[in-house]
Amino acid sequence: MNTPNLTSPEAYNAEIIANAVKFTASLFLGRGEYAIIEATTRDEIDQLAEMLSTEHPKVKAKPVITAFDAAGNQAIISGQPAKPPKAPKAEKPAKAPKAAAPAAEKALGKRAQIAADAEAGIIPAKPDFSAPTHARFRKKLDEIAALVEKGDIKALKAYPINPVSSSPNAMDKYRNLAVIALKAQRKAAKAEEASATGAAQ
């Protein structure tokens, strides 16, 4: 078993994160209940963590993201972005309200980006259910993905999902975003068709 760099807590965590083979995102729902999702890449767990927050809007806390290396060592990433930000300059936001606006937009994070992409007609990425905890839900996820590929909005809306744990929650979020994206695609197609018909006349 390899021991990560112990020169400092920061170096220890950084080494585990850099060599991570698994990530988890856990959100405390209250009364000892947690929603937990696993992924194999940092980008995937960031997206799933945002999905958890979206699915539980009443929970003010953010999901805790943890990285695991092959030896089983773990490091808590929490809400840190995938790419460490540059050290901020000491500036009073009150004196620079215009400069604060772009920062506020960036603070929306991936959750807003995923929703915006769906409204723009971009089909969301299929959740990663490769972790053993998702095994019994893989068939249902494949069925939902097949309906998304067919563009069958009616069947997607009618597909039974009981979002009581992390796996069904991820499927429900994926289905809902896909429906939004497919509707946006149809709306855009109709507008384009109407525009072409008008131009032809």
Global geometry = elongated
- Written as H for each helix and E for each strand, in order along the chain, the element string is HEEHEEHHHHH
Low-confidence stretches: 80-85
Strand count: 4
What does the main sheet amount to?
4 strands, antiparallel
Strand content: 5-15%
Distance between the termini: 74 Å
Label the structural class. alpha+beta
Overall pLDDT score: 80
Walk me through this protein's architecture.
This protein is 50% helix and 13% strand. A four-stranded antiparallel β-sheet has the order 2-1-3-4. Helix 2 packs across helix 7, helix 4 packs across helix 7 and helix 5 runs parallel beside helix 7. About 3% of the residues have low confidence.
Provide key terms for this protein.
201 residues, alpha+beta, 7 helices, elongated
Sequence-ordered SSE layout with sheet pairings:
Blueprint: H1 9-18, E1 20-30, E2 33-39, H2 42-55, E3 64-69, E4 74-76, H3 97-107, H4 109-119, H5 138-150, H6 153-158, H7 166-200
Antiparallel strand pairs: 1-2, 1-3, 3-4
